[in-house]
Amino acid sequence: MSTPTPTRTDFCIFVRGDRRFAVSTQVAREVVEMRTPTPLPCSPPELLGGLNLRGEVVALLSLDTFLDLPPRPLAREDTLLVLERGTLRFAAAVDHVVRVAQFSPTDIRPQDRTARPCDGLFHGSLDTDGERIAVLDAEALVAEVARRIADGFRRLPLSAGPISLASTTSGRIRPS
To answer: What pTM did the predictor assign?
Structure first.
């Protein structure tokens, strides 16, 4: 009797900073060219703005702190990776997407559980093409993004008062 071969899963491999990451294509939905986001006043620092993606407003996020990388500003050369889980959909700025590849669960080395707190977002690592790739726990990442953004909005001071969307001569949102 033979042992069944483990199911292989597609992963989107991307680069941010000097590191490679992999996220399941069950969550990584598409790659989009960089575009200038519309700033969102009074938003948490991870939320870089909003984008119009084929008529749908999508949040643009920085994953740097989630990936244990030093934060850096958007660059014209960045690529946007659209992540989606359930009803939550957002774009994340990455340096570039390398490829989509299939891996078996047995290819992934489990994450060391004595590591940093953000490592709960990491499923493990792969060694492929002579490089180490950090494999993200896609569901944990999306849940942590949603939690941190919501917490960020709850912590923001409301000292500016309510915001009015009434038109102004500058066309910008202003406090009422």
So the answer is: 0.80
